[in-house]
Model the fold of this input.
Amino acid sequence: MTTSSLPFLMSTQNPDGGWSYAAGEPSVVEATAAVTLALQDQPDAAAARGRGLDLLVTAQQSDGAWGPRALRTLGENDLGAGCGGPHCEIRA
Done:
């Protein structure tokens, strides 16, 4: 990752700690995982990466997997802010 992309990634993190594929969309497992990997060697991004990892741990299913819609099935009590997106009712 180039250091010039760091400000963009930091500014596009959702309030729940994850990332989405487009601005204003709910966080998704795939994007959150990809960005947390990209931030692993960036000391200035440690807090943002930690929030992303926390969200992934919260979204992990009881069988150890993450469905592509796992974050959308978490409720307000699980994430604090809740899903808030148009697909919150979809279940994996």
User: Anything to note?
Assistant: The CA atoms of residues 45 and 85 lie 26 Å apart. The chain has one domain: 3-79.
